[in-house]
Queue: 3 jobs
Job 1
Amino acid sequence: MKFKVAFLLLLSPFFLFSNCKKQPGMTEVDPPGGDTTVVEKPVFYLGADLSYVNEMEDCGVIYKENGAAKDPYRIFADNKCNLVRLRLWHTPSWYDTLNAGKRYSDFQDVKKSIQRAKSAGMGVLLDFHLSDFWADPQRQWIPKAWEPVVDNLPALKDSVYNYISQTLNRLNAENLLPDMVQIGNETNRGILLSRQVNDAGWVLDWNRNGQLFKTAISAVRDVEKASGKKVKVALHIAGPSDAKWLMEGFWNAGVTDFDVIGLSYYWAWHKPTTITDCGNVVAELRQKYAGKDVMIFETGYIWTTQSNDQASNIISEVQSGYAPASPENQQKWLVDLTQEVKKRGGIGVVYWEPAWVSSACSTPWGQGSHQEHATFFDFQNNVLPSGGMYWMTKQY
């Protein structure tokens, strides 16, 4: 997610156990002879980034459906969400001066969120930001702990490998290994940059970038081998119009051992790219990189132009044909996007922060949420009766 105002701001098939317990993404069929057999079928992901939920609840938010309080993870699961995306920051110490000083999206917080998602029967996409702060096309700041080795590539690769390996091994030890991980977040300008290099421009050092990505991926693959559990690896690019040339850069740099190409697509930031244009890119990537899947990792659409707090909102535009902003048009836009992605060979769509409602707490840029007008909840934190939540309940 990129913050563009003043502040800038997959479930791979579930693990198959020896007792053949039925898992989400599988269906039972009755073969000749009458025995019931569990048969795996391809999963189409209908996902939600719920990284803010723990923080919102600590800030006093009570989520509701049909006017009754309900666990938000249960709300999403009951409405056919099958993938929860969660961001992981390295050391988000900037939280220490906010609100009650509690940190979120660090390891302990993410562990709690993964447990909640899996307990509700949903898969997990873990988003390694590889930063202490928001990583996006404008900002890819290296974690402060690694600043001393930012220009020492062998040492930095060692830090990346150990961090990803240790994180996944710790999760696996508690049976919380994610189903998919993404290496970096909206990595259009690379990853793990010094402030000076980050602010200097858009020249990508593909040799450095390629080595860092390959090292990160190797850490995931080694955990796979040791655990015997499949973990899909994804790359993440912001904007369909940038996807093709960036993927060529990855491929030419030897970054080929991945499973999924994830795209961010927001009309407000990626116009004039239409839903059809986005579908064309999905199809082109599928064709060029045979054997690799493509999906939308981030999207969002507003249901109102109103605000409910002091924090400036980050999305302000609606697309022609989906105006005015309304819960119905939010759902329609998502349904049309998902139909197009599925038709063009994509494997899913994930909505960014549909539960980041307004609260008394603050971000670094203001009190409240920068996204409350684009969530799936009204300003009383009740599920919008005809809004985006029910996009996931449709047949695709």
Job 2
Amino acid sequence: MRVKEYLILLTAGFLLITSSCNYKQEDILTQKERIWLHNHPSIKVAVSTTFPPFQFTDANNNSVGISIDILTLLENNIGYKFKKAYYDNWKNILDAGKTKQVDVILEIQETADRRNYFHFTKPFISIPHVIIMRKNNVDNITIDELENLRIAVVDNYAVHEHLKSLYPELKLYPLPNDLACLLALSNQKVDAVITQQGYAIYEIHKEVLSNLQIVGNIGYDNELGFAIRKDWAMLTRIIDKGLSRISPKEQDKILDKWIPIQAIPFYRTYIFKSIVIILFILFILIGLTIYLWNKSLRRSVATKTYQLNKTKDKAEESNRLKSSFLANMSHEIRTPMNAIQGFSELITSDELTQEQKLKYSQIISVNCDSLSKLIDEILDLSQIESGLISIKNQKIDLINCIEEVINTNKLAIPKDKNVQLQFSNLLKQDSFEINTDPFRFRQILHNLINNAIKFSRQGNITISVNYKNANELLFCVKDEGIGLEEASIPLIFDRFMKIEKDASILYRGSGLGLNICKKLLELMNGEIWVKSTMGHGSSFYFTLPIY
């Protein structure tokens, strides 16, 4: 008995399977239509990669969306596999269809202009166009209430043409795609967006644009079907047949899959994110306040400690400089005084020849000059620092003044030094008037030339003058002497700074000359600086204004 029942069930199952297979194998196309498809094996369908939820590319680079699912059902119904051609924007798809680079366009609204290029199937989906605004606006807004508002639409969409034609008074802002429109609205760059409801709902959920809402319907629906090239009417009939076999249940299933109408969870809303951001900012501000307060206390303690150390260092440095200055002055005064005293006693001797007495007199004179110069430098520095010195400007012949200083210093060059002084007049004028203090100018130039002679054993010392700009002259005293170490250059103009460049030779001087030059030039609205390389000489530059 059990064997008989099993055979009956097996026979019934076989009949059901056979019936099902026969149904699936039923061809909805005529023989002529089937032959036409057979003769066109590579029909191209334009597919967008950037238009969710209708057609787009997912994370795995697969074409998905409402229209792709409809296309799959169509292919099953007519037993034909289309070739896909991918595009990233709507304009390129439309242009490709018009030029017959593709044969079919998915999901397109029929318009008068497009009928010049395409046949259209019956619509397989109807999508209303809606008005989207930010949530601080009221519901049930009509298109007539959008006058004077900035409205974003997608360029070249059918709704764009519709609005331009029927509502020319609207301020339309065409943007490249729907997402750009929604983001512009969310960021308050426009006041409203008009687009397809399905796309709007999908992107608002996907991008969590929780400050946006649908506030109205413009009464213009997208009746979306397939567009087929104008010369292929047969294909239009074939696709219409395939679409007609898609049941309402299958359509609803596809729509429910891609357009989930559900509330956005509170934790994904704009309000929740705003609260979290505010709390986070408050937490950061409190933490930052505590940190800055502690840092301020540490900085205050560090500042006071630094000031105390600086005061201490300054006092120690002042004491060191004072000791160094006094020791140096003692040496600089004692040396010429000893020479004056010693040779003054010798010169009274009757045993000396007239030639020896003349030589000793010259030595006494040189040391008197050295002592006088030292006293002058000390007095100058004292007057400058006490503000008692004044600059007395007058018109002078600059070229003549420079030549006088050079000639004076030529006479002072020691016989054991093979040094030549040269003047380079780059002004190219034999006479040039300048309004300055002649005494202080000579003092500065003499000091720089004297230093160049002191630190040069041989070679040329070139004194030059040129224009620095329309309002200033540039002077330079360049020697070929022993030069300066790099570490000494920033210190060379400091008070009491006396740098011994050659340990084997003691260069006499107070260490005040360059500091006096610097301070005098500041009073004369000029400046001074030096460029030097150890072993390759130094170049001292200074400027004076042309009045």
Job 3
Amino acid sequence: MPGERREGTDHPHHEWSPITTRGKLSWPNGAKVALCVIITLEHTEWEIPEDAYSADQAGGLGMRPFPDYPRFSHREYGHRVGIFRVLDALDRLGIKSTVAMDTQTAEAYPYLVKHCQDRGCEIIAHGVSGTQMISSLMSEESESIFIRSSIEAMTKATGKTPRGWFGTDYGESNRTPDLLRRAGVDYVCDWVNDEQPYPMRDGLTALPTMLEMDDLFTMSTRRVTVERYTQSIVEG
């Protein structure tokens, strides 16, 4: 599929749609703007499975001899402190968030599941763990099992089948959108190519995220300072 030449994009997952040709979006209750805040809650495994495809080392501290306590414990901060502070801040602003939660978090931290649900958050599927990412190196069968087992585990842990999917580190293969739809997913947050929701094929909807608002991407990958990152969020 890579390099498949056609009008617009090089893939069949959605049509090319310039924003100047679209109709006006209408939001409920006459709202002028819609905001989706996604918080990720993901578990970092101390020992990564041999058959897992991992993104860059979580935490940005590099590899040290096992056990790498600075990196491991740094990744536990969100489950212990960060999630509560972020939700409190959003509550003060009257914003209900979406929480992208992986299955290892949901299974190991039932308190967090209940806490997010009690705060009115929508919980969507986020793969298995922060150290296992979907890759084109996986077979179609392996990827399908990965997606379905994640959704089934989240359904069991939360009592609701997740409607949305946000892959670990935005990871997808060329098959992922089709496999997500077959698994019953309604929308996916991995695509960062627009400012509006748009239809993909077979009934799947893309809910684009703003990659520039991702703190890890902006500050770690692009080396933007904390001050400049804060300014970019305030100014939009």
